[in-house]
Amino acid sequence: MSTPRPPSLENKLRQFRVDAGLTQQGLAEKVGVTRKTINTVENSIFIPSTVLSLKLARALNTDVHSLFQLPDILE
Description:
Protein name: Transcriptional regulator
CATH architecture of the domain at 10-59: Orthogonal Bundle
Domain HTH cro/C1-type: 13-67
Keywords: DNA-binding
Low-confidence stretches: none
GO molecular function: DNA binding
Distance between the termini: 16 Å
Strand order of the largest sheet: 1-2
Pfam families: HTH_3 (PF01381)
CATH superfamily of the domain at 10-59: lambda repressor-like DNA-binding domains
Number of helices: 5
Shape: globular
């Protein structure tokens, strides 16, 4: 029997970061995390905490809902 996977997020972090003209390192420095953390969030390997999500949204001048959304249909 397989282990159920946690629900994924629709993730637009990379799009917002690139549109803002930031590198992964630049965004990481703005929010106080490592470049690797930004990379794993962008690649949906890591689901960010509420606090990190709020920091990312603030750094990119947007809201959390614009960056991350639950898919309409959960598997």
